[in-house]
Structure formats: C-alpha cells, structure tokens
Amino acid sequence: MGKARSSVALVLSFCLAETFSMAGFALVPSLLPQLSQQWALSATEGGWLGGIFFLGYVLAVPWLVSLTDRIDARRVYLAGAALSALAMAGFASFADNLLTGLCWWWLAGLGLAATYMPGLKALTDRLPITAQSRGTAFYTATFGVGAGLSYLWIELLQVLLPWPALFAVAATCAALSGLLVWCAVAPGPAKALPGTVRSHWRDILRDRRILAFCGGYFGHNWELFGFRAWLVAYLTWRQASLADAWTAMPGLIAALATFLAVPASILGNEGAHYWGRRRWLQSVMPLSFLLALLVGFSGGQSTRVLVPLLLVYAASTNLDSAALTAGLLTETPPEMRGTALALYSSIGFAGGFIGPVAFGVALDVFGRSNQAGWTAGFVTLACGIAFGRLAIGRIGILPATTQVR
Fold first, then answer.
1. pLDDT tens digit string along 196-205?
2. Selection from 176, 7, 182, 148 nearest residue 78 by Cα
3. Residue 335 clears pLDDT 80, i.e. is over it
4. What is the DSSP string of 166-203?
5. How far apart are CA 319 and CA 267, in angstroms?
6. How far is residue 184's CA from residue 77's CA, in Å, rounded to a whole number?
7. 69 secondary structure, DSSP code
8. Domain-by-domain residue ranges, the chain?
9. Architecture of domain 2-186+196-395
10. Smallest Cα–Cα separation from 277: which of 342, 209, 211, 332?
11. Mapping DSSP to helix (H, G, I), strand (E, B) and coil, where does residue 161 land?
12. Closest listed residue to residue 344, CA positions, set 206, 223, 219, 215
C-alpha cells in the first residue's frame, strides 16, 4: 500500500512539474497572428517560427535522452528547466524580428528536449514495472494539460499584458518546474550499466518494432503539432472573415482542443490494453486521417458545425499518443530505454517541425486569405498521420492478438 501511495505521489509530482514547464508552449502559436503582423511574416516564415521549436528539440534530444542511460535523468531535467527559463526570458528581452525570434524559440525547443522525455525516463526509473505503463499514459497525457493551460492563460492575459511580459511569466513557470523536481524527487543511485552507448544505438536501430513506433510517432507529431501551430491563426482568420461568437476567443477553443488530449490519450492507452496495441493503432490513425480531410473540406460550414468538428478532430489526434509511447517503453529493455527514447523523440519531433512548416507552405501556395489555402493546410496534416499509419502497418510491431499490460 505504501509503495502504491509513493508511486501516485511520484506521478503527480512529475505531472505537475511538466505542467509548469509547458506554460510557454503555446506562446508562439497563440501570438502568431500578432507576431506575423508586427514582423511582416509570410505564412512560410510563420511556419518556420512555429516549427523551429521542434527543430531545437530534434537536435538536442538524441544526446540528452541517451545520456539518461548513464546518469540520473533528474539531473538532465533540472538543467532543461533552467534552459527553458533562460530561453523564454531571452525571447521576452531580445526578440524583435524573425531571426532573433527563431534563435530564442529554437533554444526553448532545446529546453523541452531536456525536460519532456528525460522527465518520463526519471519517472519510469523510479516506478515499479507494474505501474510503468499507466504512469507513462498519465505523464504523456499531461503534455496536453500543460499545452491546454498554456493556450488558456495566454488567451486571458494577452489583452492585459504586452507579449514580452507573457514570455516572462512563462520563464518564471519553467523555473518553478525545476524547483519542484529538485524538492519533490530524490536523486537516483549512481548508474553502472553494462555495454556502451554505441552498442545501445546499434541494437536499437536493428529492432524493427522500435523503428515502427518511431515512424508512427513521426506521423503523429506531424499532424498534432501542425494542427496546434495553426489552430489559433485559422480561427482568427475565420473570425476576421465572418465574425461569430464561436470564434471570438480562438485561444479558448485551442485550449479546449488541447485539453481533450488528456482523456483521449489515456483512453487510447486503455484501448491498446484491451484490443491489442497494433490493432488499436491501425484503427485510430485512419480515423484521424479522415477527420483531418473532413475538417479541411468543411471550411465553408458555419462555425456551429466547424468548431465541434475541430474539437472531435483534436481528440482523435491523441488516441494514438500514449499507446505509442507506452508501447515503446514496454518493448525496450530498461538499460536501453534512454537510447530508445532518444531515437523515438528525435524522429517523432522531426515530424513536429515538418508539420507547421508544411502547413505554412500550403497556405502560401494556395492563399492564406481564402479557404483553399486552409483546406490545403489540413490536407498536409492528413498526409502526416497517413505516413504514421504506413510505418506501423509496413514494419509491424506486435502480433494483433498481443496485449501489453
């Protein structure tokens, strides 16, 4: 009983810390219409500004997360929280054009690389095996809580504060995240693991099941972060084209859409437990593909139809999230999980970089001031999840009847 209470407290501590660390996550997506106007950005440049965050993540995560196989992941997390605080404060103080904005937002992506997956590794290192799958589901679902709260507080405060002050608030929250982990999570024992990092990478790259999860996560993040990067801008454009109470506060809709990730992600992991991980993923990914197309070609509908459809689509984009991550962890030996997570994160968040940029390019090609451009943008999201489904289907991960518990 004591161990169960300790596990719950540990999961809660990491989830709360993750929520604080995510406070600045939606700053650029939420402020993209404003920054695009102030800095005279094209849609492609706006896509780069939204996507550079994930490029920073991709460049740092292979080294940072594989490092957690050799040192306590808690130490990496603490350094990442400090870096996130520095990046947000730097954006607030020095970003005044596209180039400086790209530099500081890229650094913020490095901060996420040092907190998100290292936080998961620090959590699972401290949980008993029986609690790891559901602990992973709650932790990954909290990503949606943090992102949703980020959209929410930015929407509410941006009418009261200038945008640099919003970045300063996010910097304070990132510092609080590090302080919470420092105080609530005890340091782990020194690691003395057999083998070398090179041998870990060689074994991971030869494992077809792990590569399948990585490909699925690439497609998932392409769709998810492309959607989140442009959702506020899309709703702002709809409101400017045809004012309506449903789109009067686009940040609130974006927050709700992001909050839906939490029950959807947890439900997705439970569905994978019940029906089998492979069968679940091969069912929900096509569903998300169809909904992306439906949203894209429903732009001419009234907002009373479009907004609920957007929310349903937002939930569908997260039905595969925890199932993918928990599957990777359960299929990887404990001594190689850091390296596996490094590969998984770097490939997956490469999709997070491509998604916003591809959406922006589609807008510039087909016109950001008309529905055709936005329809093309949503088609790029459908292409992303289609790639993820193809990766899962072609490589294969588990027998269809297997259930990981």
1. 555 667 878 8
2. 182
3. no
4. HHHHHHHHHHHHHHHHHHHSPPPPPP--SS-HHHHHHH
5. 7
6. 13
7. G
8. 2-186+196-395
9. Up-down Bundle (1.20)
10. 209
11. coil
12. 215
